[in-house]
């Protein structure tokens, strides 16, 4: 049996990255364009499972392919300290490889992952900017530069991000070959951008990641399956494609479970019909639960009220169901839009952004209603 090529795991790069060519092209061009290119400072936002982490990995790979050094980090406490260590280590690796007779371009530095710790921390942490400057000196002599990626940005890491932003701003002003790519949930990023000490980040090019077109999903499913020596019938492919809703995480989940349910070389409709419920179940226990856990009880009651509708919900009607004035309901609405959980569809209407969240809420309504009882009017935030 050929191996299952799909990767339904947070942060895991998919076998085929669907629908992101334009974004990647813009980033690659920015690396080529030189210092000051706006695409060298980017922020990816979007709901859970849309592929933010994967995009950071991709831009990191693009940079590596151009001979750049990429330092990949997550916005947890100690971010700048970890970056300092990584810079020191990169310098050390480059220095030892720039001994006479060796060239920098022959060195491939590993992408330093989020859990990076040095076994032997530098005895003296030389000043961050000086070290960075030295690293950039070495890289620029070889026509390359440094990319820093930071995942899961949020207000909690404000101090570290401020230090990082100030440093990068300084380097950009000096026309250094540096690029910074950040990623976070829409509400987390807008919180940060509204922070007065982080105004510099408002200049970043924002990339809002959305679902991808179904025809691309269909092509990717077929190609991925074929690459492993299996095939899929047309009706099965249509059904599987529809079940993804164009949502990137669901592409991997559907692909993975449909692949498992098929016996022979051909994936047929029966395999898809058995695989899709398994994929949905997994989506619930990963994405839906996490997305709902990020929210307050009152926000969840708004979503529960929306889940009564088959499609988009009228915000006036949702307010009535909640027994709230439209004014109060509109503050929940705004928060949920900022969190990337719902989106306005037209004036006065909203819909879920994450596929099957409606169904998930209906199936688990009792649990969330119970939790929100007593959270109503008095604790309204
Ligand atoms: N463009 C894409 N095409 C196909 N699959 C994708 C794409 N983007 C992401 N995926 C898949 O979707 C899943 C989620 O991706 P990722 O972890 O990057 O999302 P995220 O936006 O970082 O989510 P979170 O907010 O929870 O961190 C992974 O299994 C990944 O392989
Ligand atoms: Mg992520």
From TrEMBL:
**What protein does this entry describe?**
AAA family ATPase
Q: Where are the transmembrane segments?
A: none
Signal peptide residue numbers? none
SUPFAM superfamilies listed in its UniProt record: P-loop containing nucleoside triphosphate hydrolases
Q: Which residues form the Orc1-like AAA ATPase domain?
A: 17-171
Q: Which domain of life is it from?
A: Bacteria
Question: Which InterPro entries does the UniProt record give?
Answer: AAA_16, P-loop_NTPase
Pfam families under this entry?
AAA_16 (PF13191)
């Amino acid at each position: 049996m050929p191996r299952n090529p799909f990767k339904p795991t947070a942060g895991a790069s998919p076998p085929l990255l669907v629908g992101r060519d334009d974004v990647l092209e813009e980033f690659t061009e920015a690396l080529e364009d030189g210092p000051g290119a706006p695409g060298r400072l980017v922020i990816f936002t979007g709901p859970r499972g849309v592929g933010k982490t994967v995009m950071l990995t991709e831009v990191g790979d693009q940079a590596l392919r151009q001979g750049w050094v990429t330092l990949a980090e997550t916005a947890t406490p100690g971010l700048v300290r970890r970056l300092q260590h990584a810079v020191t280590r990169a310098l050390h690796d480059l220095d030892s490889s720039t001994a006479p007779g060796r060239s920098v371009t022959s060195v491939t530095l590993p992408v330093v992952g989020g859990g990076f710790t040095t076994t032997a921390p530098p005895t003296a942490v030389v000043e961050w900017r000086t070290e960075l400057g030295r690293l950039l000196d070495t890289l620029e002599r070889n026509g390359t530069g440094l990319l820093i990626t930071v995942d899961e940005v949020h207000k909690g890491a404000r101090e570290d991000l401020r230090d990082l932003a100030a440093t990068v701003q300084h380097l950009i002003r000096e026309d250094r070959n540096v690029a910074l790519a950040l990623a976070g949930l829409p509400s987390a990023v807008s919180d940060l951008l509204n922070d007065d000490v982080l105004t510099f980040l408002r200049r970043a090019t924002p990339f809002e990641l959305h679902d991808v077109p179904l025809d691309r999903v269909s092509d990717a499913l077929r190609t991925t399956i074929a690459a492993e020596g299996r095939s899929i019938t047309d009706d099965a492919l249509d059904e599987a494609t529809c079940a993804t809703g164009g949502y990137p995480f669901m592409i991997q989940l559907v692909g993975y479970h449909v692949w498992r349910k098929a016996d022979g070389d051909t994936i047929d409709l029966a395999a898809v019909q058995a695989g899709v419920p398994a994929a949905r179940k997994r989506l619930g226990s990963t994405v839906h639960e996490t997305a709902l856990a990020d929210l307050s009880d009152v926000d969840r009651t708004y979503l529960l009220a929306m889940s009564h509708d088959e499609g988009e919900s009228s915000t006036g009607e949702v307010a009535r169901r909640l027994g709230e004035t439209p004014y109060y309901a509109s503050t929940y609405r705004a928060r949920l839009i900022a969190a990337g959980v719902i989106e306005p569809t037209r004036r006065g209407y909203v819909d879920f952004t994450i596929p099957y969240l409606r169904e998930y809420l209906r199936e688990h309504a009792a649990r969330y209603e119970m939790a929100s009882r007593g959270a109503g009017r008095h604790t309204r935030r």
